[in-house]
Specification:
By secondary structure, the chain is α+β, with helices and mostly antiparallel strands. It has 17 helices and 17 strands. Strand 15 (529-532) and strand 16 form a beta hairpin. Helix 3 (93-105) packs antiparallel against helix 5 (142-156). The protein is flat, with a radius of gyration of 50 Å.
Length: 729
């Protein structure tokens, strides 16, 4: 119970209702005082005290036995006086450690699933709520606290945790899950369901010094604290002989047990209960839907409806029922108080949800004693008699003679010298004449153990395995012989079957725990940013209010911390991963299921993510890099592209140079032919002027022949130009 000044118990901000909490009233309508609330709570506690004390007696014995205290104080004192051995070879404790280790390694994960799986908004809200729940557990070491409570379940039959709202370490507020010692809890003894889900009340008692109580409540309730000093009961139990002194052991009257509370201390109780209120569910005749109202408000509404019914029928023009159809239902309001002695010092406060903040996990039910018992009670008898037989054998050996002689007083010449030399090799022990013949000496008889003593020790050791059905060494593969993996898995599966009741109670508790923490997360939803996940897989989320006012289905999923499960996942991945890799579906999250260090998995996941990003960039650029061998880098690809472009430019330049040279040679030829033609034409005109008409025919023949040469040259030039164009193309 967190009684710090900033705890939820003392902080009125825990009351999430818009109006002050309702105080129960008598039939006359007068409010009951806080003292009356404390008296009612104390009456329920005193009525449950005999069963609770009986459970505590058994639980204390089991807890001490598991810690190796196999003898009571009176027994051990007598055994020390008489010189008897007090060895305790505690073999039973490894069974508790084994089952507790299974829980720590195979912890299940809680998931908040949206009611509408096709609604993306609700699905995202469920994922955020699941991560917020993991964040709250991580900051309060919730997994370790739950495992400690499960250890209490195995030892004593009941394990308890408390969920609170504290500001000591986190000024902004934090949900705090803590294990509660079993010897501080009280409960409704009429509850029969697993995890006490049908309990009407639960309470916790703790001792507090007068100075601390006065510092917290002395300003308002100093006189009440003063009157409560030394009052109350505690968890200190009397020493009872239960192993060696069975005849002298006497039954203990629990009503006369010492209180265990010092004169300057007070017993502080935190009491949680629920009140049942009647509400009316009715069919609203105006809106055609089901509505709810408190009983008194519905009676007023119903009277007004009947009074206005004739006018409604005339004005509205449709038929209204003569009365509103309704039925009664019961709702619960969970509250708590803190009281000292017979006076309330804090409260009543309304709890943030529709459940107690104290959550229990329960073991097997003992119908005769009326309480639960744990796994340790099954181990006590075999271990008790195993311890008894071992110590009896040790006592027989210790008190029996360890060799030596039985001799008459006149058997040796020198008795002192004979005593010193008798056990020494090579020594001569002188005896009186005739002592040997008269057999005045003889060896002491060797100790003889009772027949069957060693067998009984083995039987008791075997009964530990036979009673529980478990063999921790064989299940974990440490039996000293080679055991096939299939056989080990079958043994582990059988162990979980035998422990299904304990683990079933744990799983039921986890769902109740998750719902309780969810109720407190509503108080923390103030838009803050928090970090969730492991150091190598961290993520920031914002705690907004909307997701924590939705309805979810709380389910348990398999975790990744169980070595057997991780090995099974590894077998599946061996076959699945090559197929996914060939299809380009490299999922980094698959690495979380490998039995490798977290830091190494983180580096591999980073490399896989970088590879996927690089592949996406290459895909955008149109590059496809694959095949065997070293992949081509981007620099090499760019260099090859530049070389190809340079070669193309060089080829183009050469082609242009050839074309320019060809054009130049052809133009030169045409110019030469043109100038030559001009020169020949000028000479012909001069001849015509000189020769006159007689030379006209001869000149015409010459011109015809020249025209044929020029036409042939023109055809040759045309062919060359066509060849040039073909080369350019």
């Amino acid at each position: 119970m967190d009684l710090s000044p900033n705890s939820a118990i003392l902080n009125s901000s825990l009351d999430v209702s818009a109006r002050p909490p309702t105080i129960p009233q008598t039939e006359a309508g007068m409010q009951l005082s806080g003292d009356r609330l404390a008296l009612d709570a104390l009456a329920n506690i005193n009525a449950a005290r005999p069963i609770v004390d009986k459970f505590r007696k058994q639980a204390r014995e089991c807890s001490d036995f598991n810690a190796g205290h196999h003898f009571g104080d009176e027994d051990k004192r007598e055994m020390d006086i008489t010189g008897r051995p007090t060895a305790a070879f505690n073999e039973a404790q490894k069974y508790i450690r084994f089952v507790s280790g299974l829980e720590r390694q195979a912890q299940l994960e809680i998931q908040f699933l949206a009611r509408d799986v096709h609604n993306d908004k609700q699905s995202n809200a469920g994922e955020l709520t699941t991560k917020a729940y993991e964040w709250a557990l991580q900051n309060s070491s919730g997994d370790d606290e739950r495992s400690e409570a499960f250890w209490d379940l195995l030892e004593t039959g009941m394990g308890w945790t408390d969920t609170s709202y504290e500001r000591v370490v986190f000024p902004d507020g934090m949900v705090h899950l803590s294990r509660v010692p079993w010897d501080e809890m009280l409960w409704d003894i009429r509850a029969r369901k697993k995890c006490l889900e049908d309990a009407r009340w639960v309470a916790r008692e703790r001792h507090m010094s007068k100075a601390e109580a006065m510092r917290r409540w002395g300003r308002k309730h100093g006189d009440k604290i003063q009157l409560s000093l030394g009052m109350g009961t505690g968890s200190r139990l009397p020493n009872e002989s239960y192993l060696y002194n069975e005849k002298s052991a006497r039954p203990v009257d629990s009503t006369n047990w010492p209180s265990g509370i010092a004169p300057n201390e007070v017993c502080v109780y935190e009491y949680q209960w629920y009140d049942e209120d009647i509400v009316i569910e009715f069919a609203d005749p105006f809106e055609n839907k089901i509505a709810t109202l408190p009983e008194d408000e519905f009676e007023v509404l119903h009277a007004q409806y009947k009074k206005a019914l004739p006018a409604l029928r005339r004005s509205v023009g449709r038929d209204f029922p003569d009365s509103i159809e309704h039925n009664e239902s019961i709702t619960r309001k969970y509250r708590r108080i803190i009281f000292v002695g017979q006076w309330t010092v804090e409260g009543p406060y309304e709890l943030p949800g529709r459940r107690f903040t104290f959550n229990a996990m329960t073991g097997q039910w003992d119908n005769k004693d009326g309480h639960y018992y744990g796994f340790m009670r099954l181990l006590m008898d075999p271990q008790r008699y195993m311890t008894k037989f071992v110590n009896q054998v040790m006592e027989i050996i210790t008190r029996s003679p360890k060799g030596g002689l039985l001799a008459e007083s006149d058997a040796f010449v020198d008795p002192k010298r004979a005593e010193a030399e008798y056990g020494r090799s090579g020594a001569i022990t002188w005896m009186t004449p005739g002592a040997i013949a008269q057999q005045k000496i003889q060896d002491k008889p060797a100790p003889v153990l009772p027949q069957g003593s060693a067998e009984m020790i083995q039987v008791c050791a075997a009964m530990l395995r036979e009673t529980t059905g478990l063999d921790p060494s064989g299940v974990m593969g440490a039996s000293g012989t080679d055991v096939p993996m299939v056989t080990l898995k079958q043994r582990q599966a059988a162990s979980f079957v035998l422990l299904s009741a304990e683990f079933g109670s744990l799983h039921r508790y986890q769902i109740n725990e998750a719902r309780t923490i969810f109720d407190f997360l509503r108080l923390l939803a103030d838009d803050r940013w928090v970090r969730v996940g492991t150091p190598y897989n961290a993520q920031a989320i914002q705690l907004v209010k909307d997701p924590f006012y939705m309805e979810y289905d709380v389910v348990l999923g398999e975790g990744t911390r169980d070595p057997a499960s991780r090995e099974q996942y590894m077998m599946y991945l061996r076959e699945l991963y090559p197929v996914l890799s060939k299809g380009g579906l490299d999922v980094p999250e698959l690495m979380d299921y490998l039995p490798l260090p977290a830091s190494f998995i983180h580096k591999v996941k980073e490399a896989m993510a970088a590879k996927q990003e690089k592949a996406a960039e290459n895909a955008k650029m149109g590059l496809q890099i694959g095949g065997r061998g070293k992949p081509t880098s981007m620099a090499e690809i760019q260099g090859r592209a530049r070389k190809v472009n340079a070669d193309a430019d060089l080829t183009t330049a050469k082609a242009m140079k050839i074309r320019e040279d060809l054009h130049t040679s052809r133009a030169k030829m045409l110019l030469d032919a043109y100038f030559k033609h001009m020169e020949m034409g000028q000479e012909e005109r001069e001849r015509q002027n000189e020769m006159g008409m007689d030379g006209v025919r001869m000149t015409k023949d010459i011109m015809d022949s020249m025209s044929r040469e020029q036409m042939a040259q023109a055809q040759l030039d045309a062919q060359n130009m066509q060849s040039l164009r073909s080369d350019e193309e």
